[in-house]
Specification:
binds zinc ion, about 50% helix, Beta-carbonic Anhydrase, Chain A, about 200 residues, alpha/beta
Length: about 200
């Protein structure tokens, strides 16, 4: 499956998911016996937030072996995430990486709050997540001096997703080479935790 086909599968499956939730109020996932225990052939890689309300397999209605998922608060990029993603690209030949952020992200909110209201008492480990989100959101705060955290959440969330897309390519010669050869697409997307809709960013 190439990157365009992969993105179309996800787009359509998410539309089905939204319809399913609206119809029945319940969520079913594509788990088939045939896929369990077999080889993994994921057609897409997801770098998603660890938020419990954003499970990639469910919102894209995919089953076992379909998606190679890396989750970390704020969908930030660091060497361990990049290494996992490089492994999946090289081992399985997946041609699509989706950086999946979401509305009302706690990591984005904490970072905005730290910049606007002053940093709290974060542990060094939590601070490392805030540090990874800061380059994306600091310019937005600087351009909107009087705005509140709530007012900036939407722009900051999108900026954080785009920053991870850029960082993946900048910090990985493996991924940037595949991208230049036309064998990999890295795209940002935002999941709306109220509607269940995923919006792919240009
Ligand atoms: Zn989040």
């Amino acid at each position: 499956m190439n990157s365009q086909q992969a993105i179309e599968v996800l787009r359509k499956a998410n539309a089905d998911f939204v319809e399913q939730v609206a119809d029945s109020g319940s969520i079913t996932t594509a788990v088939t016996e045939a896929k369990m225990g077999g080889d993994q052939r994921p057609f897409a890689i997801i770098l998603g937030c660890a938020d419990s309300r954003v499970p990639p397999e469910i919102i894209f209605d995919q089953g076992f072996g379909d998606l190679f998922v890396v989750r970390v608060a704020g969908n930030v990029v660091a060497p361990v995430q990049i290494g996992s993603i490089e492994f999946a690209c090289q081992q399985f030949g997946a041609e699509l990486i989706v950086v999946l952020g979401h509305t009302q992200c706690g990591a984005v909110k904490a970072t905005l709050g730290g910049i606007i209201n002053g940093g709290g008492d974060l542990s060094p480990n939590l601070e490392s997540i805030v540090q990874a989100v800061t380059p994306a959101v600091a310019p937005i705060v600087a351009e909107n001096a009087d705005a509140s955290v709530e007012q900036l959440m939407s722009a900051a969330g999108e900026a954080n997703i785009k920053n991870s897309v850029t960082s993946l390519l900048e910090q990985s010669s493996v991924l940037s080479a595949l991208s230049e050869q036309g064998k990999l697409m890295v795209v940002g997307a935002e999941y709306d935790i109220q509607s269940g809709k995923v919006r792919f960013l240009d």
